Fold each of these.
Amino acid sequence: MKEKQLHALLNEMTLAEKVGQLVQLTPDFFAQGGEITGPLQEWQMTEEQLFIIGSVLGTHTAQQVYAIQKQYLAKSRLKIPLVFMADVIHGYETIFPIPLALAASFDEKLVEQVAEASAEEAAEAGVHVTFSPMADHVKDARWGRVLESNGEDPTLSSALVSAYVRGYQGDKDLLATNHKRIAACVKHFVGYGAPEAGRDYHTVDLSELELYQNYLPAFHAAIDAGVQLVMTSFNTINGIPVTANKKMIQEVLREKLEFNGLVISDWGAVAELIAHRVAENREAAAEKAFRAGVEMDMMSDCYLNVLEQLIHSTPALEKMLDQAVFHVLQLKNNLGLFEDPYRGLNDQNLSVNLAAKTRRLSREAAEQSVVLLKNDHLLPLKTKQKVALIGPKATSKDLLGAWSWIGKTEAVVSLQEGLSTKDIQLNTLPYPDGEEVTEEYLQKACHLAEACDVVIVAVGETSEEAGEATSLTKLELSRNQEKLIQAVSTLNPNVVTIIFSGRPLVLSAIEPVCKSILVAWFPGSEGGNALANLLMGEKEPQARLPMSFPRAVGQLPYTYAQLSTGRPQTKENQDQKYISRYMDEKNEALFSFGAGIGYGSCILKETALDFDDQTATHTLACTIKNPTSVDHTTILQVYSRDDQTEVARPMRELKKWQKVFLPAGKEQTIRFQFTEHDFAYIHSDLLLKSDVGTISLFVGFDNTSLTFIGKITI
Ligand code: NOJ
């Protein structure tokens, strides 16, 4: 449809029909077979109201979408198709590793492929929009939703958020005809990842400097990549819930970030303004959210029951209403829904079996997401070795993670299943599902450990313990899991611990007794196969931590990119009192952002800095060599420190990275280019600019052992 036609359609709409377009409900509202029961009755909604709504969220099958759309179009006067949205976060039916795991790959291309494959499966099931990517900046693993994030570094997160948007949407202008892609909704705008004390939905108080410097860039990246929707967050920011926060939505999102698509609330967040006590009733809640700039009301009846009356009493607001409705129509048009409301669902040839191809990608993604944190000459396993496999995750199929509502647990390959295909003597001690380690289990495990060459202990969180509303005050493994690792390690020192989790955990108690530690996260449908390939050395672990693993919960919130302080701790002043340090713990994380090793290694052989006057571009050339006899993949990381700044800045921050495959004995020169823009930062006037001065550059394969390269002048 041409823009003119969209305007003509808008002009044809009654006030009630316009308001209806701004309402999003779940599919169960439609499952009444014509009778007003269930949620319709509970919400005291009429059928007339139902057949003017604009969107549905959370359908499961193509048949369901087809039936609802058909029923809707038959009853609605203007026949504006519904737009169907869903949480397709790390896959639809085939589940990929959780986003935090994918971030560990440091691989934009991989993330783009994963998003594309997820879009394809979801589109086949009738989904038009995914509530992904999550662009929240995170520093606190107590918050369970770090699982959905790209970790603690805003530069890495921005690159990956942008990759997700490209993968889901493809070429935005082709979205109308390319029914294999779907629209993306970036969330949760803004500050949702910074709840006080890591408690989900809790207060957020952020300085503007911090907001602009670290919390907005990933949203900006999504918008630059053409994201179609933005979801506002549940939290307050500096006292005002974002869902009612005019400054955040109008000034920051619309004006500063230049977003011109559709703004949707989070689930029920408009009505929650009453619980926040910034609105005394539904009328006030709807008015506050609407005036602030929230356009679509997800799962509340506030807009549906209030906005028409509000516009009658304040006609000046109709312009705002028209603008919001236009954004909804535009989204539907961008998706090609006016031409085909079923978006290809009745094309015979759409129903190709994607499973095999997508599962392969899921396995590759898992192989590239698992982080090897420690390896004292134990891995890879050797063929014929006698291996004990114990612990709650040994045979568990609970490897999908929080957002796998369509993915089937039965279709998961467990660690035991993956390892059983390998040429080792595998001895598994199954773990009673959902139970804690009993004394009997512990004894059997110790017995088995003694009789084997290597012990693999598979431990971690259940999917119920990670994700939304799973905040924690303790991040250690459960006491029984720690006890299990410690007990077997006294009988057999060859312990490999595999951690399955949706967040960084505190591993201080078990790290000393494990020869190898692998972080598998929630690796998805093919987790067991991927891990087996890695454990056997058929694939090399190549991921790096996207979020630091603290030594103690008391270090949180934590980021490796700490700002300079007036009393920094240095190598020389370790024992002094009046410096910025803890009395009972080191400052640094146990395993920092960027940490991870493989089975091979390489060395930084030579570096050179060069400046091109004409393009004002600095080039850093790093020659790295694999001196070993095994092939090796590494992630070369470049960090910088601005030597003199207007506001306090990080002691080091990631600027560029590259994954490099180096065959045994070979070397390669990797070039990184920088312009002044790469070193711009937010100043106290909230503007992004760079200062004249020097920048120190550091390079490494892991951010705790960086090599100082030199200074460049910008
Ligand atoms: C609430 C969550 O915060 C959000 O991320 C999700 O997209 C919506 N529910 C819809 O399910």
Amino acid sequence: MAALGLHRLGSHVLGRWQPVLCSTQCTLHSTQAAAGHRKGAHSFPVIAGDILPIHRHVYEANSRNSDRCRHRYMELMEKVKLGGGEKAIVRHTQRNKKLLVRERLRRLLDDDTFLEICPFGGLGLPYGDVPSAGALSGIGKISGIWCMIIANDATVKGGTAYPISVKKQLRAQEIAIQNRLPTVYLVDSGGAFLPLQAQLFPDKEHGGRTFYNEAIMSALKIPQVAVVCGSCTAGGAYIPTMAEETIIVDRIGTIFLAGPPLVKAATGEDVSAEDLGGARLHSRVSGCVDHFAATESDAYSRARMIISTFSYDPEPEDRAEFEDPVYDIEELAGLAPRDYYHTLDIKLILSRLLDGSKLLEFKADYGTTLVTGFALVEGNLVGIVANNGALTHDASLKGSHFVQICDQRDIPLLFLQNTSSQDLLPPNVLKAEQFTNRLKAQASMIAAVACATVPKITLVIGGCHGGESFAMCGRSYEPNFLFLWPNARIGLVDANRLSWSDQKDEGWTDETEFRNHMNRLKEESSAFYSSGRLWDDGVILPQDTRQVLGKCLKIIRQQRCERVSVRSSPLLRM
Ligand code: COA
């Protein structure tokens, strides 16, 4: 089973972006590649991005919608930052004398380059709101190395794991594996959230999978460090114990399978948390941890020192030269489509996302409802695959061809997705033939995307509906990162395409029932509904997109700077 996991994670997910180079080769390779990309980029043509009077009406409708979306985004961000609320913050900081999770990250990280993953995960669930899903996750630089950080927020029900918390941890580990990111766990958790234990324990993607991943990550030479900065009870106890190196904070950190109340109930013994599983016990007697820290600050500076021993040659910062787009990035708010019918030419968006607004288009005059080409985002070369209408037969063939070219040349792919659900029933035989041909071509593109081993990033800028979303690297196609604009709508069918007059023929008899169904469909299609359930890696504002993409591409590239040996366990012939 483990071998199978290693094979899948090692060969397919990591693809050819595995670190197998020694430091000298690696540095040379990256520098040459980057210099070459920058030099070539100057000759890429600038694409037209002017917003013309004819676009104004749609632009203004989109802007009004984007304002509403931004307002909702800010509201949710405020809510998330409050964690478990005022009372829990007082208990955490004053009674338990612990730092809040965001302050912990501030002390651990080099700077404020933190890319938070799915901050809205856990909001609006059937079992209520679980801010940050009870644990922050994201990627930040520690001692010059991009690391994944998974940090419990103990103000949310003692940092206990809800089903959504487990899902978030597993996604963070998956990102770490796919991008070969060293991982730091800040553990402060009461273990399973007991009222929902049936949804947490038994299944494959439940709690135990976190520890399975820890083992697999270690075998894949992805270093993991844990800081015990609170309770690590029950399942929580395995995280630091399975990490490669663990630090525990005196009088704050504890590790045990069952806490003092359970010991009392089972044996009648009174025992303090400190004696049962405190910092001194684990650093001197059990050996479950490797470093004793007198304070939290001490623990984070030790973690930074440990990470500085990892075998990476971080890229020099001066590689970060790049051109800004020629067109105003703020105008993206008016280009983010409020629905499929308010979609403007995708090049208006690309001209505000790409370095120098430059794109070397591939097959510019063929299958024009898909735009493909090479460009730079904050100095990183990417292959762009962007919807510009329906994914027709020609557009799908062009997409397949271009995806394979990028795969051949080791160029990461950036998908800009805006799809609509297709008509399922052809009105006549001619159309039926067209539908079948389109289906065949889309199947090729789906296969090309699924099998491409280069890193992929998907950005849903509008609709994510129906089969076309698969060809555009939807979640099931394992993009390294998938973000949504707040105006995005995600659902099998596009609710805006359904009307009562059409639906009467489809068997609906009660108009009120139909409208209720439509409203539910619209609510369930919102970007915030999706993000609350972790179907993506977060909602990002259009005007922040360039920065986020630039960061993701740098994070992805870090694995080329790894100095790990090619040595691995040999295959045993039987
Ligand atoms: N499941 C569900 N809720 C839990 C919980 C659990 N395992 N552990 C704690 N909570 C809840 C508490 O009921 C409390 O809820 P409230 O804010 O609505 O009152 C909240 O989390 C905070 O707990 P509290 O004990 O007041 O905070 P604390 O900071 O003093 O201690 C813990 C936090 C986690 C150390 C402590 O609650 C604890 O030891 N819990 C039991 C852990 C356990 O036995 N887990 C076994 C899981 S298999």
